[in-house]
Amino acid sequence: MTAYTEPEFLPWDGRRVPLTFVGGYLGAGKTSAINELLAASDRPIAVIVNDVGAINIDARLVKKRNGDTLELTDGCVCCSSIDGFGAAFDQIRARAVPPEHIIVELSGVAEASNVIPWGNSAGFLLDGVVIVAAVDQLVDTGLPGWVRQHIDRQVSEADMIVLTKTDLADRPTTTAAIARLGELAPGVPVVDGGLGRREPEALGRFLALGGHRAGDIAAVPGPTLFDLHQTDMMPIDGPLDRGELEALLDQLPRHFGGQIVRAKGVVATPDDERLLVQIVGSRREISVLLPSERQDPTDLVVISLRQ
Question: Record's PANTHER family (predicted)?
Answer without folding.
Answer: COBW DOMAIN-CONTAINING PROTEIN, COBW-RELATED
